[in-house]
Amino acid sequence: MGKKGKEDIKTDESQMEDVSFEAHEDEEFENQSKENEKENKSKKKSKSKKKTDKDLLAEYEEKCTELNDKYLRLYSEFDNYRKRTSKERLDLLKTASQDIMVELLPVLDDFDRAIAAMNDNNAQEESVKGVELIFNKLFTLLKQKGLEPMDAQGKEFDTDYHEAITNIPAPSDDMKGKVIDVIQKGYLLNGKIIRFAKVVVGN
Question: What pTM was estimated for this model as a whole?
Answer without folding.
Answer: 0.55
